[in-house]
Amino acid sequence: MHNRICKLPDYQISFPQLEATYLNDNDLRSIPDEFIEGIKNTRVLNLASNMISFLPQSLMGLTQLCMLNLSKNRSLCEVSILGELKYLEILILNKTGIKEVPESIGQLVNLRRLELKDCKELCYTTPGVILKLSRLEELCIEFVVPSIGIHKCLDEVMCLSKLTCLRLKAPSVYDIPQDFKFDKLKGFNIRIQKEYKMYYMWNPERHLTLCTDYLVFPFLKWMKRLIEVKRPNTSLFNIKNLNNIVPDLYQEGFNNLEGIALMECPNITCLVDTCDLEGNTNEKFLMEFKHLVLSGLYNLKVLWKCPDEFISLTNLVNLYIIGCDKLVRLFPMSVAKGLVSLKEVRIRLCENLEEVIWGETEMDEVIVFPCLTTIGLRGCYKLKSFYSGSCSIKYPSLVKVSPVHCPNMEMWGHGSHETPKLKFVNNVPLDGPYSINDAIVKVRVQKTYPGGRAPPLGYIKIRPCLVDTCDLEGNTNEKFLMEFKHLVLSGLYNLKVLWKCPNQFISLTNLIHLHIEYCHKLVRLFPLSIAQGLVSMKELKIKGCDGLEEMIWGETEMAANIVVFPCLTSIELRYLYKFKSFYSGGNCTIKYPSLVEVTVRGCLNMEMWGPGTHETPKLKFVDGEPLDGPYSINDAVIKSVEKYKEEKYKREQWMIANKENEKKCKQEHIEKKITNTR
After folding, report:
1. Could you tell me which of 633, 554, 631, 549 has the C-alpha nearest to residue 599?
2. Residue 17: strand, helix, or coil
3. What predicted TM-score, i.e. pTM, was given to this entire model?
4. N or C: which end of the chain has fewer CB within 10 A?
5. Does an H or E element contain 378, and which?
């Protein structure tokens, strides 16, 4: 493993006692027949993360093989030969280039686990193949391209009597059969349509992620049955016809879920609105929720529009709120005092939030949050206090409080706040169990930041650059930005250049992580004279900068004309529509000895990685496209961009064809809702 082996012995060898063979994470392009003959008794063969494009006929001789891992061989498209491995129990084909599940796979009658994850070309399974795998217990299959074969495949999946775990990705809600049943499944992870990274997956054994423009009636009916039987943690992303949970999804049982994430649903204004709910107003809403994520709900103004006595959050364990700019405050004390199970609260980038808890109790009582261990507050510019009332509050389990980039936070709250286990607020020590207010004041005055990280500049009011020595008196011989190890620039719409000063005053030798997103006026980042000083840089992520054209430009002043980025391991470039190249200078030689991951996605105008020589000895793929050698990154980038353009075109055509169908289903849903109301 991890030995960079590029060739196996092509002469006679013999390892008759070898039961497990691990050759993953190397540079293998083929497997010699002589080698296969020498390990014919092996039971486990791991060939993942290589560059294998075909399988040798001699593979059929591994009659004792029980587990085969061929994942991350992107050029491997033909796997029909695997049907001869009759004793195979585990087959992993994740991130391969296969376009269909061939008929021969149906011969693997002993197969218990089959994985087909992130196979971007997969769109078809030969009818009857899945049905023949009668002993299958675990199935992971992801379809990216819409196909009528998906529906037939899922019909066969329902007939697998021993299947207990299913991981499924489908491009549309219409690909899920309305009679699809989950009764026998102990675990499942179902994702519909778009890919979305779910960071808060508390119960991965039962999870449903839905990303579509509209929730249509046939699918809602299926979801209702699923919720009644399995109560999965559910993520809803970018749903346009959703205004709240109650009453919009009340009949579908969403009020009874244990975990829900609502992300970038543009029309949600609250979670509960009893103004539109007829009857059942004595019910306690949100009572079953254990995990709640609200992210990017730009129109969410309040959490509920109903009397507080109809809300219960006694079971809530985790609460994450991110980017809900219209929220001003969260919980009245009458509801907050019921948060007896709450362990973790994280609130980020809620620009108008002023207080988390407000109000008094009816009696002069002491409020206790018995389980609360972590409170994270970040980028809440208008936050004044955690609690604005005067009650006494005890936090017997609280061990971490981190208010970051909350410049207007004047105190934790009025009254007495007892935190016996809390030792620090950020890096400011507490003088005792009742001194959290003093620590908050010190954090604000000292402007300390946790972990020594430089503050994300998206949270600070700055000019159109980071360094401008035109307004700086004296100290012009100082090296600026030299201490920065971590730098995030997010949403700086007026940022045009990184500095306005001679390049010799800038040093980035200690910079490890750089993340830039949505800085639309940036055109280019680093001259080569500065970039060659990025000797500590490990990770570079650039996303959604519409005007960016190049990362590095210019020539080197070094005689050898060679630049080395010794620590750089990961480069991610996403949705840079004007981006042309990573480096636009002359015939300079640039070496990336540690680079193992390059992602180029949505850079439609990218023509090449850069002129000159670019040596990437450890890099095997660019966004799934294999490299032919350590100097072939330019070719891989071109292939990756062209492939993305093809995928984009296919998806656009599918969306056009599907649009009318969605409109029709939406109208049917409205008519059904009106009929039910009557």
Report:
1. 633
2. coil
3. 0.67
4. C
5. strand 374-378
Q: Are 272 and 296 in contact (CB under 8 A)?
A: no
Q: How many CB atoms lie within 10 A of CB 12?
A: 9
CA-nearest of 198, 654, 187 to 168 is 187
Q: What is the pLDDT of residues 33-81, one digit of tens each?
A: 999 999 999 999 999 999 999 999 999 999 999 999 999 998 999 999 9
382 contacts 354 by C-beta, under 8 angstroms:
yes
Task: Check the CA dihedral 277-278-282-283 and report its sign.
Answer: negative
Q: Looking at the predicted structure, is the pLDDT value of residue 228 above 50?
A: yes
Comparing 96-100, 284-288, 489-493, 619-623, which segment has the lowest mean pLDDT? Answer: 489-493
| Residue ranges covered by each domain of the chain | 1-171, 453-641
Task: Tell me what pLDDT residue 402 has.
Answer: 93
Helix, coil or strand: residue 497: coil
Rounded Cα distance between 297 and 321, Å, is: 9
Provide the angle, in degrees to the nearest 10, between the axes of the packed helices 217-230 and 633-677.
90
The beta-strand segments (E) located in 195-310 are: 206-211, 233-237, 259-263, 272-273, 291-295, 304-305
DSSP assignment of 413-471 equals: BSS-EE-TT--EETTEEPSSTT-HHHHHHHHHHHT--GGGPPPPGGGS---SSSEEGGG
Cα distance between residue 33 and residue 618, in whole Å: 27
Identify the CA nearest to 450 among candidates 424, 412, 482: 424
**3-state class percentages of the chain: helix first, strand second, coil last, to nearest 5:** 20, 25, 55
| Phi, psi (degrees; rounded to nearest 5) at 130 | -60, -40
- Residue 163: alpha-carbon gap to chain centroid: 28
Helix (H, G, I), strand (E, B) or coil at 628: coil
Bridge partner residues of 514 (DSSP) = 487, 540
DSSP 232: -
567-616 tens-digit pLDDT: 999 999 988 989 999 998 877 889 999 999 999 988 989 989 998 899 99
Among residues 456, 348, 340, 350, which one has the least CA distance to residue 393? 340
Which CATH number, 3.40.1110.10, 3.80.10.10, 3.90.550.10, 3.10.20.740, labels domain 1-171?
Answer: 3.80.10.10
Cβ–Cβ under 8 Å, residues 98 and 105:
no
Q: In this structure, what DSSP letter does residue 246 have?
A: B
Q: Residue 647: helix, strand or coil by DSSP? A: helix
Ramachandran angles phi, psi of 230, nearest 5°? -115, -20
Smallest CA-to-CA distance from 294 within 274, 270, 312 is with 270
Half-sphere exposure of 304 (CA within 13 A, CB side): 19
Of 412, 432, 438, the C-alpha closest to 420 is 432
Q: What is the DSSP string of 565-603?
A: -SS--EEEEE--TT--EEE-SSS-EEE-TT--EEEEES-
Give the pair of three-digit tokens for residue 275. 């103004």
> Are 254 and 245 within 8 A, CB to CB?
yes
Cβ pair 532, 555 in contact under 8 A: no
